[in-house]
From TrEMBL:
Biased composition (Basic residues): 1-10
InterPro entries (UniProt xref): P-loop_NTPase
Domain of life: Eukaryota
Compositional bias segments (type: Basic and acidic residues): 401-420
Disordered: annotated span: 1-21, 400-420
Biased composition regions of type Low complexity, renumbered to the chain: 12-21
Protein name: Sulfotransferase domain-containing protein
């Protein structure tokens, strides 16, 4: 833009001397050169940081002598089950990205040591801390259904569940200082430790005993917490930073993350905004919605923007703040947008591996519930009735349609839930079907979500490994 402005000045002043013209051209070239050098410098810095993380993970993995150790790319059974995954979307350490192994999958889904129905506190011998789970609700990934699931699970097994809202922008300084988490609110708490109701789970009333949340509340009173929060928000729950965990020595707070096909999530998000009335642009029928999505995607790509919604939750509070500060301090322009999107995707993948998250996929709820069942239950129950209730719980939420029933306003029965993303004969599937008919638009759409796709494909591989481990362990119990 500056170069163009300088050219206009030259044309508007034809009497300018040759030396002044040369000076203007030299200044424009110098500006472009400095901009290019800045881009290279930032790219190299981010690349070196990613490589450092990768080398640490690789060193830890070399120390693991388990004979069943397999990398994503090496596990032929999983590759055959997912033929659509190409090497470009299956990152391994040799490519500067993370590796994930069967041993890590086994550790991720290890059974919690508590007994379902026993409210007493236990210690996880692997971490030497009380087990705490953090559900990271990524936008449009069946989160409302899963929050309902955790609420019911907590009542049946006599554990405590806390729903958090507006927490994705919580300040890392308030977390580290053990202050109340700024910009974060408690929506409800269900404390199964204090109430022992089994036949009337639907009648249990949620409370708001804490006006806000902090590390002390979570450490002393909560077994499972979740909502729109960032991964790693619980790194200081047990006092000093516990962010130094690794797949070999996992962080005490165990993370649960669900993801979903990026295009599906994007379309579902548009329908959700239309239904809530937060989006006034265009008609809300099928034709109008398709037109609106095409306009948005094309406009974003024209501005060299990429969709990276999941990084709002898959970057830690500190990482998010560092990237924001770098953007402001260095005044990064649109020409560096892809570098930034790529770096954020790499960091998100690193976090999935570093925290060794329990990985669910909204399209595969049955498999995801198999994984969650193995992680949340030790196969110890205080009574047979509780075991039967648990069986019904996991079976009902493992129904593939349960993730489509997704509305915070409805009652607790998943089969009766109404999907805010489907209305007036317009559904996510119908809109996607119309978009896919446009051969000119789809490559643009794919480019727009490609870094979300990169994260999603890596997560799918993690999910498949964890499901294989959970299935194998389930068979061994029979």
């Amino acid at each position: 833009m500056m170069a163009k402005q300088q050219k206009r000045v030259v044309k508007a002043a034809p009497s300018a001397s040759l030396s002044s013209r040369s000076s203007g051209m030299f200044g424009a070239k110098k500006y472009l050169l400095m901009r290019a050098m800045l881009a290279v410098l930032i790219g190299m810095t981010l690349f070196m940081q990613m490589m450092a993380w990768s080398l640490v993970a690789e060193k830890e993995q070399r120390q693991n002598t388990d004979s069943r150790k397999l990398t994503i790319i090496d596990d032929e059974r999983i590759k055959n089950q997912n033929p659509h995954l190409t090497r470009s979307f299956v990152p391994v350490a040799a490519d500067g990205l993370q590796m994930y192994t069967r041993e890590m999958a086994r550790r991720a889904i290890r059974s919690v040591p508590w007994t379902c129905g026993d409210e007493r506190v236990v210690i996880d011998t692997l971490t030497d801390f009380r087990p705490i789970f953090s559900f990271v609700h990524v936008f449009k990934t069946a989160g409302s259904t899963l929050r309902d699931f955790f609420k019911r699970y907590s009542l049946i097994c006599r554990k405590s569940w806390m729903t958090l809202i507006s927490c994705s922008e919580v300040k890392s300084s308030s977390i580290r200082a053990n202050e109340d988490w700024k910009r974060c609110r408690v929506k409800e708490v269900v404390n199964g430790r204090q109430i022992n109701i089994l036949d009337n789970v639907d009648d249990a009333k949620a409370e708001i005993p804490y006006p806000t949340v902090n590390n002390t509340v979570l450490r002393e009173s909560i077994d499972i917490y979740g909502g729109h929060i960032r991964i790693g928000s619980g790194d200081f729950i047990h006092g000093g930073s516990t962010a130094t965990g690794s797949p070999a020595q996992p962080p005490p707070v165990r993370h649960i993350v669900f993801l979903r096909d990026p295009m599906t999530r994007f379309v579902s998000g548009i329908l959700y905004e239309q239904k809530k009335g937060t989006m006034k642009e265009g008609d809300t029928d099928l034709t109008g919605t398709v037109k609106l999505i095409k306009k948005r995607v094309r406009g974003s790509r024209k501005a060299n923007e990429y969709w990276k919604k999941s990084t709002k939750y898959l970057l830690t509070p500190v990482q998010s703040e560092n990237i924001a500060n770098m953007t402001v301090a260095m005044n990064i322009g649109l020409t560096l947008e892809e570098t930034r999107a790529y770096a954020q995707a790499l960091t998100a993948i690193h976090n999935l591996v570093h925290y060794n998250v329990i990985m669910g996929m909204a399209e595969h709820m049955a498999q995801s519930m198999t994984i969650l069942r193995h992680a949340l239950l030790s196969d110890r129950f205080t009574d047979d009735d509780r075991r039967e209730y648990v069986d019904v719980l996991f079976e009902s939420y493992g129904n593939e349609r349960s993730m489509e029933k997704n509305d915070e306003r409805s009652n607790d029965r998943p089969k009766e839930k109404i999907n805010l993303s489907e209305r007036d004969g317009v559904s996510t599937a119908l809109v996607l079907g119309e978009l896919k008919k446009d051969d000119d638009f789809m490559p643009i759409f794919q480019e727009y979500v490609k870094y979300e796709q990169m994260i999603n494909d890596f997560a799918t591989e993690m999910h498949q490994m964890q499901f294989e481990e959970a299935k194998q362990k389930s068979l061994s119990k029979q």
